[in-house]
Predict the structure.
Amino acid sequence: MADVFIPGSLEEAVGFLTDHPATAMPIAGGTDLLVDTRTGRARPDRLVDLSGLREIGGFELDGELLRLGALARIRSIELDPELGRRATALVEAARVLGSVQIRTMATVGGNLCHGTPSAEMPPALLVHEAVAEITGIGGQYSIPLADFFVAPGRTVLAPGDLLTSVRARVPSSRAGSCYLRQTVRWSMDLAGVGVSASVHVQGGAVSNARVALSAVAPVPMLVAGLEDTVVGTDLAPEVLAEAGRQAAEACSPISDARGTADYRRQVVSVLVPRALRIAWLRATGSWPEGSPAPVNGVWTREQR
Amino acid sequence: MPAVRASELQVVGRRIPKLDAPEKVTGQIAYADDLRMSGLLEGAILRSPHPHARILSIDVAAAERLPGVRAVIHAGNVQQGRFGYGNDNAPLKGDKVRFIGDEVAAVAAVDEEVAKRAIELIHVEYEVLPAVFDPYEALEDSSPSIHDELPDVSGNVSMRWDFDHGDVDAAADRAAVIVEGRYSAPQAAPAPIETHVVIASFTPSGHLTVWSPVHMVFMYRKALADVLGLDWRKITVIQPPVGGSFGGKIDIDTHDFIAVMLAKQARRPVRLAMSREEEFVGTRTRQPIHFRLRTGADAEGNLLFRDAEVVSDNGAYNAWGSHAMLVAMNTITSMYRVPNSRIRCAVVYTNKNYGGSVRGFGNPQATFAVEQQMEELADALGMDPMDLRLRNANQSGDVTPQGMEITSCGLSQCLDIVREQSGWDRRRGKMRDRHRGLGAAAYIHVGGGARIYGSDGCGAIVKVDESGQVTLISGSSELGQGSETALAMIVAEEMGVPIEAVHVVNSNTDIKPWDVGVHASRTTFVAGNAARMAAAAARDKILETAAELLDARASDLRIREGVVEVAEEPDRQIDFGRAVRRRLLREEGSVVMATAFYDPPTHHQDKEYRGNISAAYGFGAHVAEVEVDPGTGMVRLLNLWTAHDVGRAINPMSCEGQIEGGAAMGVGLALSEELVMFDGLIAAPNLHDYGLPTAVDVPRTVVNLVETVDPLGPFGAKGVGEGGIIPPPAAIANAIADATGIRPREYPMRPWKVKHWIDSEERSHVVAGKDSSGHG
């Protein structure tokens, strides 16, 4: 049983967490923390309930900039049509996170701060060039989201630090993104491999592209060095295959109950080309608007 | 009883929602976990952290000193006997532990937190022993002996199931085509939403009442008495509504004994509720079975023989899982007409959680091997697999090599239906370019009782009170399968009253008559016949009274919608309830009550596994359509067409629900469910990692009910509870084979396995330069 502290402001929350570094944990949606508490992975004596801190909730678009409050609910991202057009990867990642009930409670900040290697939000945000905004006892600072994750279950946050928001770049035209994954079940599953891609197009060729992976390294990761392969091309099959090879080489998966390391590498080399291709189709207006990508990038489910 | 034409039926055949559905969907029903009583203590179990270890000492002093603790028990301070086939098990282990999760000690305390803390205070000193997890390794001489205390057990072989019919070797010499392969079924779990919960309470005079969602209540009561040295006349077992069993709650389990011992020691009622983790780790699973199977046929496609070497991975002790071969054997010898068969099966102890009874009981495992081999054989013969099946299909009048007497049999009709609906002839083998495929599988399963005990029978009491309410007191139990509704419909039909007038009482051993218990898809058939007989006898009493009152002959009367009328002159009538009152409320009156007992004409199998174990057999066929992603190995199940010979659908809605639910479980077995273990430790004992399928994973399931009107079933009905789960693993494997050319050798067919098979197959093509599928 833990005591619950309800802070009146962000400062109060930070102050309380700083004063009780070993025993207090912040709680927002609680979808991970309550499970961890029950299984004994987390044993907080004090919970700081962030849910009343409106200043770090919700999300807003300002030109090409998306500011996502740490308390933004996954379900509200999933259902937003404008985000669906401009931050498609994010919305596709949100769509497959847990169940509707989980998504209704779960927050962006919680999904990032829990530090799960297979979490859905990180790869989708990484391809949108996300930056984490952090408030701690020493004030505010920001770091690229790619540097936010340290190890499984660990982030850069020091005791007392709170992730307050994430800024991401979501262009309104000539750009597309997508999130794909491999799972055992077709819903309510964790990614065995998660792949997100974004593509910017200028003059019929890729001007910028990013690929991020989850569940295939200790932390969610951006694949470095892809620009040389894809920029300036129209993502012909051999270019996509090379990008897939590079991504498979860049990652460092492990073998566990959800698949072997070899298998995961192979899947990376398969899903990265698919994700880039779908992002390209979206950037060039060739993908039906509002139509989500199939979970693994190839399905057209026909139910006769 | 005479056959009844469908057109004459008033209630049977109607689509009636389950009678308890409103209480369940509104959350008002009180499951075992909702029960509370004054002075109730919470129990907790200390389980072994080692897969195999000798217990050197147990120190409970610190736990006993913890405030709030009312009892701490272990093998050294309780009176307990042994149980399990061959008496290889004890509720609390004193000498050795044999799997991670084995019960060592238990605590009863004022609340759950204190009980858990007390468990942590018990100190057990172990001498860790070498453990063995693979049943083939367990058979080797160098393997550790898991039951060295049992003189009859050598080489970790708990029992053998060997069967011979005809001459397999001679048949093999004659065969034009023989296919051979290995097929493995994993350790799966029944995974009901309600975990096991038991409450035990003694009165001061020593009468024990146990609340437990078990479905063989009378055998449960006897086991409690035998193992704990209690007087079984002083035990009442009450079965609260069951929140899912799927076989997992069939019979007594270790924690039931523990709860009773705790209650005895503490002199207070004790509740023992399994957590989800304990449900996976410490209650019974589906027996993993490994088959090496050969099937041979002549050039025309007549089956000549089946030859099986089987290793059944028993886990640490003999529970029902050790007998899963009883049913798996039926499938190997009797699915289709097979003139010669040979089975060599060893049930092998391993240091793992042990197998119990789960829906289908050995049949999904065996059908996975047998029905894949039918399609491999058809491919080798250049025949259509449906033609091969139809050529060899069981027919009415057949007696199988095990002596199973096939009476009603709709197998061919079921095959025809799913063949037609799936577009089999147009589409099978023609969609590989799109990575799509169709696969089929059929089944045979007991559907008219299954004699595994002295009695295969069930008692029924029908009582009609002065309001006109009809109460059926059935020996059988409701597990959520809808038997209460089906039995009420049978009684309503037989008595001519509306279904609303019938109540079913079935949850208390003090009240209800004997039933061997719910298993083997037998309830509608056996309990249904008993209910029908009792209802007929009660009806005749009412007709006798009504005949007096209407001045007619009883044989000229009929009852419809609760009104007794002269058949030829319906204006001469009397209300059903009024007839009951006129019989009761007079001098020398009498109540309307009748009893019946139905024991089906089934036989124990002899020592050679021959005998007509069931009075009817259920049949069915499925076709699955899949699309395989060769890049990731992910399999999307697109369609499932099913046809089941149910004899007669007492309640079509319920039959469809049973078949859809069974099929959904079969889909989970096929594609996702597995208790993944590392060195005997279940990696992630939760519903997510276990891979229970969601609604998204289960496709539209077309259900066809084939009514063959069984000669002995109540109104022609046969069992339907288990059929749905049996074909999907085989049908889906066959569909994957059709889509990709690979041959799945084990389930669940999780993505990395499918990917691995596809990639290996491509490599073998390069090496061998020919299609090597179909020959393991």
